[in-house]
Design a protein that fits this description.
Elements (H helix, E strand, L loop, with lengths): L2 H21 L26 H12 L2 E6 L2 E6 L2 H10 L6 E2 L3 H7 L9 H17 L5 H19 L9 H16 L9 H18 L1 H8 L1 H4 L5 H25 L9 H11 L10 H32 L1 H14 L15 H14 L8 E2 L4 E3 L2 E3 L4 E4 L1 H5 L42 H18 E4 L13 E2 L3 E2 L6 E4 L1
Helix pairs in contact: 6-7, 6-17, 7-8, 7-13, 8-11, 11-13, 13-15, 13-17
Length: 490
Amino acid sequence: MDIPSTLLLLGSVIALLILLSWRNKPQNLPPGPTALPLLGNILTLDNRAPFKSFLKWSKTYGPVMTVYLGTKRALVLVGYDTVKEALVDNADDFVGRAPVPFVQRILKGYGLAISNGERWRQLRRFSLTTLRDFGMGRKRMEAWIQEESRYLLDTIKEKNCAPFDPTFYLSRTVSNIICALVFGQRFGYEDSHLLHLLQIISGVLRFGSSTWGQLYNTFPWLIELLPGKHLNIINDVDQLKTFSRSKIQEHKDSLDPDNPRDFIDCFLIRLNQEKDNPNTEFNYENLIATVLNLFLAGTETTSTTLRYALMLLIKHPEIQDRMQKEIDNVIGRERSPSLEDRKSLPFTDAVIHEVQRYVDLVPLNLPHYTTHQIKFRGYTIPKDTVILPTLHSVLRDENYWEKPWTFDPKHFLEANGNFKKNPAFLPFSAGKRSCVGESLARMELFIFLVSLLQHFTFTTPGGPESIEATPEISGFANLPHKYQLIATPR
């Protein structure tokens, strides 16, 4: 058979397979925009900020939609009421985690973040218990954060009011907290190896939020055949794995089962206890992957939020000034802030909450997954459907926020100035898959930011007008533009 005939036959077979798959689409799915074979809805999707397309489409198709990302079917949930009904009221049906292709390529299904079933249950229960035992959300952790904040303050003082990029100063500070929990040690700010690892972590997040990263997750079989950034990122992640393996080996060599020092020690002890259990999930593959999960998630999300917070305070100097006055009145400038101070700093607390809401750091949320067929709002959702409970639509829900598109701490303040909660404040998601490190992140944001404002006033060389608060990249995450920070001692 000649080449043209072979290509024609191949094309006909592919077309027939596509037609058959399209004709066999499940019935009683939620409505959604018309999708093309193979491509789905990607040609009409804003690839720079897909969550914006989902919000726009929901005005036509409602808060529960079916979209196709390539050939992959996805259920998009829009608005607080819809997301809460799924993740909280029907938690067991929506507890699955989607096999995101790029993460799957790196972790092979191991670890806490993307596992399901018994693996996820065992690892989540162990991780929560162990992190709490080592002080997450408690006084012991508070002392670590207070100590680390002093290292940060000393480092910034050395700048002597010269402009600098705060990105890796903040990431080193935050990373040292998770390193204390997981590895049992902190790293010096001049440690070049740690800085290199943090640059890799930043690069992974940027890749995942880029158009190329989204294309990888939509057409992994195709992108794997092509040269591109994904190859560099995969090689970079291998360096993170090598670092984790070396730390695990160090712990293994010096392990004292009666005196665990950190998360790795506790995991190794459990691994030894269950070495004869064929159903255990405590193995080296899950340890390496979970260490990577905690290291990546525990570093970049909180440090990026802090970077956004300082940016917004520069852009709104009147808010920065009011926070400093409140902090001076309650704490002064000598004593380190503690979590107990939060209830006496309602305006400061409101600003921190509003930063998280306005920043909208993970607008798409981590994708969930149906591990079995479910019913939701009268629709039938087949097994193996990706679920996108969009946090962007929750943090911008006009039914719950007076000015959802404006940075305004009044969203968290009563008329008398007291702090008020809002049920639609879900930056850490909700339900059984909510962020394991939420209490740690909340403590870090409060203590680090209050400590910084106690000692410095923050500006930038071009003044407030030069600050661009809209994200530089919007994809999996909203990532801020780089800027130069001037920290003037008070």
